[in-house]
Design goal:
about 160 residues; alpha+beta; Ubiquitin-like (UB roll); 5-stranded mixed β-sheet
Length: about 160
């Protein structure tokens, strides 16, 4: 066991785990942060998508040992001060059906909108192509991202994001 210190949703945390333990298990099983979901364990479904130093990443394939001193944000941190515009757009567009993939979808959408404030359908499809929704809510996801882009461009707050 090795001590690992990193910033999680704005708070410094220290955990003692093997360095090669996937961060997803540290988040869920050690720290009780259950927003990032276990979907595949190999980084292809996107259910666990979170942010590392502001960039989307998959904690299911990222060892905790490589997070030392870095900033990790999960869906819990995104909405810590109230709904982020992407979360609000998700509610308004009634995106969620089963909801399992939605934390990862939202975190991927936030990362997209940080880089591209006017995404086209093709931009959205490309950015979200690695996040799987078994319920097939892709049309609503695209609509929510467009709505969130408008909210962000109009000066809506980006609480925690």
């Amino acid at each position: 066991m090795v001590a690992h210190q990193f910033i999680l949703n704005g708070q410094s945390v220290t955990v003692e785990t093997p360095a090669d333990l996937p961060l997803l298990w540290v988040l869920r099983d050690v720290l009780g942060v259950t927003g990032p979901k276990y979907g595949c364990g190999v980084g292809v479904c996107g259910a666990c998508t979170s942010h590392l130093d502001g960039e989307a990443f998959r904690p299911c394939i990222h060892p905790v040992g490589s997070t030392a001193g870095r900033e990790v944000m999960t869906i819990e941190g995104l909405g810590a001060q109230g709904l982020h515009p992407v979360q609000q757009a998700w509610v308004t567009e009634d995106v969620a059906q089963c909801g399992f993939c939605q934390p990862g979808q939202i975190m991927a959408a936030v990362a997209l909108l940080r880089k591209n404030s006017h995404p086209s359908d093709a931009d959205i499809d490309a950015a979200m192509s690695e996040n799987v929704c078994r319920c097939g809510t892709y049309v609503r996801i695209r609509a929510a991202i467009k709505r969130a882009a408008l909210l962000l461009r109009s000066g809506a707050g980006v609480n925690g994001g």
